[in-house]
Design brief:
Elements lengths: L2 H18 L14 E2 L9 E3 L1 H9 L3 H13 L4 E7 L3 E6 L1 H14 L13 E5 L11 H19 L3 E8 L4 H17 L17 H11 L8 H26 L6 E4 L8 H11 L3 E4 L17 E4 L10 E4 L8 H13 L4 E7 L6 H11 L6 E6 L2 E5 L2 E2 L12 H8 L1 H7 L9 E4 L11 H21 L6 H5 L9 H23 L3 H23 L11 H25 L9
Parallel strand pairs: 5-6, 5-11, 6-7, 11-12, 13-15
Antiparallel strand pairs: 1-2, 2-4, 3-4, 8-9, 9-10, 13-14
Helix pairs in contact: 1-3, 2-3, 4-16, 4-18, 6-7, 6-8, 9-10, 10-11, 12-13, 14-17, 14-18, 16-17, 16-18, 17-18
């Protein structure tokens, strides 16, 4: 149930009736007619721009259209008032019965309230994390993992068929560095002094890899040259790193559906097939790029290269796919990988990248647009950095990792639920400060506590009601006399609940799961405000002594809040709590 969609349908019906009556021209395009919350809540519950967007094509003044539309809307029992404002905006106030009925709807639908079918079962691939398999996940990966996982859950809730995918970057030079680093730990396991020279990975996490290599190979690799052991140790170490990364993801509550390997693209003809597809479109050619202004990227050469004409699909410059020596650029396997996703039949692709991939966005979108014939949209979300603080100071690096703070460091300090919620308290492209002290304090300034506390408060009301012998199952509460919810503070909470289905659709269409976290904080604030008003006005308390019927109506409202908070936290991957400890 989406009240905003329902009221928009009413507006369209009234406009059709106006056209039938000759008050409007027939055949007007109403696709831009919207029903939204007004900018100022004092103006009403909802507002429509219908008169403003139809005035010019109708050849009429906006206020004239608005006044006729208002008269028709006012005849509907759901509309308490319809008032024309300014040049022709129309503000609507809904009857209390609408908000009271919404509470019953929430309780009747339960966790499915707000669930949408706007995705229409389309297949969407959400690729996220995709960390190099060279060590444990760090705090930057945490934010990308949470955003990607929450986005996948949000899209599922809104009707898409979602695949969570991890792209293993195991085809580049970094895995050779991993192999050399693991070899030094293998030497250490055999009683030799490791040579952790500059450029190798120094973290203690490779010590178990060295021990495992010794268990498998004994001392047989000690006297062999790199050419004899590099490939084998690379595969062995990469496998152990991916096991570690899977454990890191599990600690964060993330489970991938698919793991794809970059290395599997090489020598299989997949890269060649993708580029042949582009070549057949006239988008691959031999040429020399102009030297870039500013910092020179590593894939630029002052000589002829094989280039992708990405400017034909919105990029700023064409991009190299093969170097002059015949080797692939980093871009070539990424083109092939995305081509593979297109070929797998996805209707939409979403990539969650680190902020350092900003220069990659246009070229990747150009490649997908070309390979899919414009059929498959690609949305790339860039994740800005996370700054860690503790005791007023920057949080230091992890000895185990060697150079950074790991995912495990964060989760062990504050727990999975806090970590996930806090990572969604800013939009993905805004920097985020993660203060270990603040995220654990019990105050309104800590959003995860504030939302969890609201849910726990409702649970405490339900427990006290049970002790008083008041039935509080959802069916009984939905059937209560909800006309008793007539105070403005109670109706304000119901109005916030009504925003949930609309919020889901907006967040899903924009691929912005942080909107869910923001909404939950606002809903919790309304619940806490109502609770506090009850301290001043006894008639607003959820439990009315000696009046089970009124108590059930008020508890129904509180329980509805808990239902939506629980559903929202579920999308974010956070467990709602029943009591604060």
């Amino acid at each position: 149930m989406n009240l905003f969609n329902d009221l928009r349908a009413l507006v369209i019906d009234c406009l059709d009736a106006m056209a039938a009556a000759g008050e409007l021209p027939a055949g007007l395009d109403t696709s831009n007619v919207a029903v939204e919350p007004p900018r100022d809540a004092a103006h009403g519950d909802m507002a429509t721009n219908a008169a403003m967007v139809l005035a010019k094509p109708a050849g009429q003044k906006p206020r004239d259209i608005a006044e006729k539309l208002a008269a028709r809307l006012a005849a509907d029992p759901r509309i308490a008032t319809a008032e024309v404002a300014g040049p022709g905006f129309l503000n609507l106030r809904l009857a209390p019965a609408v908000w009271q009925g919404l509470v019953a709807t929430v309780l009747g639908q339960g966790a499915d309230f707000g669930r949408s079918d706007i995705g229409q079962g389309q297949k969407v691939n959400v690729e996220f994390v995709s960390a190099n398999p060279t060590g444990p996940m760090h705090v930057g990966h945490v934010r990308g993992a949470v955003v990607g996982d929450a986005l996948a859950s949000l899209l599922d809730f809104a009707g898409w068929e979602v695949t969570r995918e991890y792209y293993i970057n195991d085809g580049g030079a970094q895995v050779d560095v991993l192999a050399r680093s693991a070899y030094e730990r293998y030497r250490e396991a055999n009683g030799l002094e490791p040579e952790i020279r500059e450029g190798l990975y120094p973290g203690d996490y490779l010590i178990p890899v060295g021990a495992a290599l010794k268990e498998k190979y004994g001392a047989s690799l000690l006297d062999k040259g790199e050419e004899d052991w590099l490939a084998e140790i690379r595969e062995f170490a990469t496998g152990m790193m991916m096991d570690m990364i899977r454990e890191d993801l599990a600690a964060l509550g993330v489970t991938m559906d698919v793991f794809s390997s970059e290395k599997a693209l090489y020598g299989t003809g997949k890269i060649e097939a993708a580029l042949d597809r582009l070549k057949g479109m006239g988008l691959i050619y031999e040429g020399v790029l102009e030297p870039p202004k500013g910092k020179t990227p590593e894939d630029w050469e002052p000589r002829e290269q094989t280039l992708f004409r990405s400017t034909a699909h919105g990029d700023d410059v064409d991009r190299p796919v093969m170097k002059s020596d015949g080797s692939w650029t980093y871009f070539a396997p990424d083109i092939a990988y995305h081509f593979d996703k297109v070929e797998r039949g996805f209707d939409q692709l979403i990539d969650i990248f680190g902020a350092d991939h900003g220069g990659y966005v246009k070229r990747m979108k150009a490649a997908v647009a070309a390979l899919s014939g414009g059929r498959v949209p690609l949305d790339i979300k860039l994740i800005q950095l996370v700054k860690l603080w503790k005791n007023g100071e920057p949080f230091k690096m992890s000895k185990r990792a060697g150079t950074y703070v790991t995912l495990r460091d964060v989760v062990e300090q504050v727990g999975r639920d806090v970590t996930r919620f806090v990572m969604l308290t800013r939009k993905n492209d805004a920097p985020l400060d993660f203060d270990f002290d603040k995220v654990l304090e019990q105050s309104k300034d800590n959003p995860v506590f504030y939302v969890q506390y609201a849910h726990a408060r409702v649970c405490s009301v339900l427990r006290k009601a049970a002790e008083a012998g008041i039935a509080t199952d959802d069916a009984t509460l939905a059937a209560a006399d909800l006309t008793k919810l007539d105070h403005e503070a109670e109706l304000a909470v119901a109005k916030k609940l009504a925003e949930w289905p609309r919020l889901i659709e907006i967040a899903a269409r924009t691929n912005e799961p942080h909107r869910v976290a923001f909404y939950l904080y606002e809903l919790a604030s309304d619940l806490h405000a109502l609770w506090n008003r009850g301290n001043e006005l006894p008639e607003l308390r959820f439990l009315q002594e000696g009046d089970a019927a009124t108590s059930q109506a008020k508890i129904a409202l509180a329980r509805s809040v808990a239902v939506v908070i629980s559903a929202g936290l579920g999308i974010l991957g956070v467990t709602p709590v029943e009591e604060m400890r």
